[in-house]
Amino acid sequence: MLGIITIIFLLFSILPGDSTIMTMGQRSDVSSEEAVRKELGLDLPLGIRYLNYLNDISPLSFHNQVNTESLFYMDKNKYDARTLFRIGKESVFVLKKTYLGRSYQSKRLVMEMLNEAIPKTALLAVVSIFFAIVAGVFFGVLSAVFKDTWFDKTALIISVMGMSLPSFFAAILLAWIFAFLLADVTGLNMFGNLYTVSDFGDGEYLDIKNLILPAITLGIRPLATVTELMRNSSLEVMSQDYIRTAKAKGLNSYKIIKNHLIKNALNPVVTAISGWLAGMMAGAVFVEYIFDYKGVGVMIVNGLEKYDFPVVMGSLLYISIVLVFISILVDIIYGVLDPRAKAEK
User: Fold this and answer.
1) Contact call for residues 70 and 105 (beta carbons, < 8 A)
2) CA gap 74, 64 in Å, rounded
3) 3-state secondary structure of 56
4) pTM (2 decimals)?
5) Range of the structural domain that residue 89 is part of
6) C-alpha of 302 from chain center
7) Which of 197, 236, 281, 334 could form a disulfide bond with 319, CB atoms 3.0-4.6 angstroms apart?
């Protein structure tokens, strides 16, 4: 996580573009720009800005309550903090919410903007991965059971096509087919947010149909991967002695697949899903932008267009940390599914 934070900070510290101009507009004067640069801390050396950044995003941080010229002076406009213990007469060690800065454009807290966008992107990612897992496991097992048949060969061809299809191209293609050519049949929209403003002045309402096309688009590539992995893993499991023993005992195919095959073939799928779920958060940038689905992806694109670096940095940091925690969670789940992995550890 420290490596991720460092890379994100350094990347956006060397990018071209003056954030003060984007904050104040093109008619700003030199003295005003210098005042804004000082307020944002952009006049400080890179190393000090990095330490300030770490202190801001860390829930546990060190601050000075008295000296306004101190590097870690407690700025009440940034965050409210709860003092854990004092260090001398002026310094304190505090517990606080992560501070990701304010948007240069809207002046809103980045964390507030993320709190609004994250649930939408998270829902999109979860629905997409659920669709990919269920359909991928189903088609993968069937391909293994009916190996070398027309169904198996067709599934393999579709899997290769799905893994090769870029998300942005798939989004345009599906939107054109199902929301333009077949719009009268499907009733789907080419563009739309999860929440739609009522035409009758009743505020916003949940428009779940706007989730369908983005979720399918985002789930195509992991679906293809899960299908291929599940097929290969199932074929390996089917060659094991305990499967042959189950058949010799007279168990029907359904019980063998349900009780013995699927659980033991899921291990490589679980590992792949860990990377895909976090990857979906990043891949959602293109899908959300094309479908105008107001999530973290749209925030990142808009932030890059307007040089609103705190918004982009906060969004990328969130996605990266989600990847770290998902990797930890998958290690735990993998140990539950396969006791041998836990024994090796």
Assistant:
1) no
2) 6
3) helix
4) 0.76
5) 2-96
6) 17
7) 281
pLDDT digits (tens, 9 = 90+) for 110-145: 888 888 888 888 888 888 888 888 888 888 888 888
Please give the angle made by the CA atoms of 332, 235 and 228, to the nearest 5 degrees.
70
- The structure tokens 């000082």 sit at 38
Instruction: Give the residue from 110, 9, 99, 13 showing the smallest Cα distance to 56.
Output: 99
**pLDDT per residue over 321-339, tens digit each?**
877 887 787 777 767 766 6
Structural domain includes residue 104 = no
Distance (Å, rounded) from C-alpha 110 to C-alpha 5? 16
- Do 146 and 242 fall into the same domain? yes
Neighbours of 128 (CB within 10 A): 27
Query: Average pLDDT in the 237-251 region?
Result: 78
CA dihedral 63, 69, 71, 74 (to 10 degrees): 30
SS3 92: strand
127 plus 232 within the same structural domain: yes
Q: Is the dihedral of CA 42, 48, 50, 51 positive or negative?
A: negative
Say yes or no: 81 and 135 in one domain. no
Q: Are 294 and 288 in contact (CB under 8 A)?
A: yes
Same domain, 51 and 133: no
